[in-house]
Write a structure and sequence with these properties.
single chain; alpha/beta; ten-stranded mixed beta sheet; three-stranded antiparallel beta sheet; 27% helix; 21% strand; globular
Length: 320
């Protein structure tokens, strides 16, 4: 009997040690760091470092979202080591981010230019929350991060097919640019949720529905963005994080109290410029903002005559 009791004690002790090894948590005032082993039955075990920050956050009242001031759940901070481990070994971390988006969370992810706020474009509350977190005017346009040209075909009426004589078809030029750091403003199709087009800065229902008939579309050349979009059923509504917030940890700390749900940190972005914004909604290309990429591919003589091709920064506001 004594031998049996000793054996059971040894087994329970070993089990507890194994569990402790699989999940060791070290808590700091602002961050809970969770270490996990992954591999299951495989003899090759990989060690992952998932960083989840938890902080009680107060939803900001006001705006158009009817903030209630009720404390909400913790935020998620995910660090991805692309240099040492690579996307293949880190992509599993995006599962939790995709689930947060499905639940209506608004967060920040990297793109091929700046970090950007993102939300499920089919979720009206999430889109409203994005405006609230960024403290943006409701008359400001947002853009959508697309998985490919099929999404552009679905949510817009497409690229114009009647360029000036001798000019290259916009679609052919776009194929050369995408994926890449460009935002194209196109006429919206009926498939785009109305919440993406409504301008709630006015109480006039008719004006709200007619306020916007266009939408900015992007296909970023960022592997992390692409991997996340592949986990979702629809593109993401997005808006660039203000330029004064360049460090992922600073972005997280600055916006957590406003309701930020998650942060995907892959380090500093290589590009210091936001995307080049090209308005194709009227048929002729007009460069609204010269950013990353090659704006001269789209610049017209009229652009050169107006502000030396500087475009309209206000019209391009918010595009990542």
């Amino acid at each position: 009997m004594a031998a049996m009791t000793a054996a059971m004690t040894t087994t329970l002790s070993s089990s507890s040690t194994a569990r402790a090894h699989r999940a060791t948590t070290t808590t700091t005032p602002m961050r809970a760091k969770i270490m996990m082993d992954n591999g299951g039955a495989s003899s090759h075990r990989r060690r992952f470092d998932v960083v989840a920050r938890a902080k009680t956050k107060q939803r900001r009242a006001g705006g158009g979202g009817g903030g209630s001031g009720v404390a909400t759940a913790e935020g998620l901070y995910v660090e991805m080591d692309l240099e040492t481990i690579g996307l293949e070994g880190e992509a599993w971390k995006l599962d939790a981010v995709a689930e947060a988006i499905r639940r209506g969370a608004v967060g920040v992810i990297p793109t091929d230019t700046k970090y950007a706020f993102v939300a499920d474009l089919t979720n009206a509350d999430a889109v409203q929350k994005l405006y609230d977190i960024k403290n943006a005017g409701l008359n400001k346009p947002l853009s959508i991060l697309c998985r490919g040209f099929a999404d552009i075909d679905t949510y817009t009426t497409g690229f114009p097919s009647n360029p000036k004589a001798g000019a290259t078809l916009p679609f052919k030029l776009a194929k050369q640019c995408l994926p890449g750091p460009y935002t194209f403003i196109l006429p919206a199709s009926k498939e785009l949720p109305k919440v993406c087009l409504m301008d709630k800065s006015t109480k006039d229902k008719a004006r709200q529905c007619k306020a916007r008939k266009t939408v900015g579309v992007r296909i970023p050349a960022c592997d992390v963005t692409t991997a996340l979009l592949e986990l979702l059923d629809a593109p993401l509504m997005c808006s660039t994080v203000p330029e004064c917030d360049d460090e992922p940890a600073v972005i997280y700390d600055n916006y957590l109290a406003a309701g930020l749900g998650f942060m995907v940190d892959i380090g500093a972005r290589a590009s210091s410029a936001a995307s080049t914004v090209v308005d194709l909604s009227t048929g002729d290309a007009r460069v609204l903002r010269r950013g990353a990429g090659d704006p001269d591919m789209w610049a017209s003589d009229e652009d050169d005559d107006e502000d030396d091709g500087g475009g309209d920064e206000d019209a391009a506001w918010g595009f990542a």
